[in-house]
From TrEMBL:
SUPFAM superfamilies: 2Fe-2S ferredoxin-like, CO dehydrogenase ISP C-domain like. Coiled coil: none annotated. The keyword S-adenosyl-L-methionine does not apply. Its EC number is 1.2.7.4. It comes from Granulicella arctica. Residues 11-20 have a biased composition (Polar residues). Keywords: 2Fe-2S, Iron, Iron-sulfur, Metal-binding, Oxidoreductase. Residues 167-186 have a biased composition (Low complexity). This is Carbon-monoxide dehydrogenase small subunit. Residues 1-10 have a biased composition (Basic and acidic residues). GO terms for molecular function: 2 iron, 2 sulfur cluster binding; anaerobic carbon-monoxide dehydrogenase activity; metal ion binding. Residues 1-20, 163-186 are annotated as: Disordered.
């Protein structure tokens, strides 16, 4: 947490998808609402609103968080990556492409969170076992796919990354990985 000392106003500064932003916000406003209402980044979805479903997942300083549980003040000074920050110009991110090709997305409510959870997983485990995939996505619920195609999408992306000999599944549109551990994969 990067809580400023002696802070008197309601402004916070954070980096969203590679862009620095300063915003006026009630300190206890949820990061999810800040993203959706103030920044119009509607990729993060509200499912349960209680930290149980993962549909609101974003990366905060490289860690996967439920943005419905993060007060805006806690995000002050943080680096945030949302699903909008993964695509590289007009091209889908490799993880998005794998979900598309594997049928890992149906209604799409869980998909942004699933993809960010996959990004976080592959930064830590470039070639994850099925058990590591299941554990890495355990905080993200899907009511449509039965998970099999989602796991297949993750395996496909890991396999492509291995075949290509680089780490495309941990890149972002800003050209850097939000994960501290991802730099060790290059
Ligand atoms: S809406 Fe945040 S975890 Fe469900
Ligand atoms: S695709 Fe519908 S909840 Fe996962």
């Amino acid at each position: 947490m990067n809580q400023p000392t002696g802070k008197r106003d309601n402004s916070i500064t954070l980096t969203i998808n590679g862009q620095p932003r300063t915003l006026e916000t009630p300190p206890m406003k949820r990061l999810l609402d800040l993203l959706r209402e103030d920044l119009h980044l509607t990729g993060a979805k509200e499912g349960c609103g209680e930290g149980e479903c993962g549909s609101c997942s974003v990366l905060m300083n490289g860690e996967l968080v439920n943005s419905c549980l993060v007060p805006a003040l806690q995000a002050d000074g943080a680096t945030i990556t949302t699903i909008e920050g993964l695509a590289i110009e007009e091209h889908l991110h490799p993880i998005q492409q794998c979900f598309l090709e594997s049928g890992g997305a149906q209604c799409g409510i869980c998909t942004p969170g699933m993809i960010l959870a996959t990004h976080h997983l592959l930064a830590k485990h470039p070639q994850p076992t099925l058990a590591q995939i299941q554990e890495g996505l355990a905080g993200n619920l899907c009511r449509c796919t039965g998970y099999i195609r989602i796991f297949a999408a993750v395996q496909s992306c890991a396999q492509q990354s291995s075949t290509q000999g680089d780490t495309p599944c941990t890149s972002t549109s800003s050209g850097t990985s939000p994960s501290p551990s991802a730099s060790s994969l290059s």
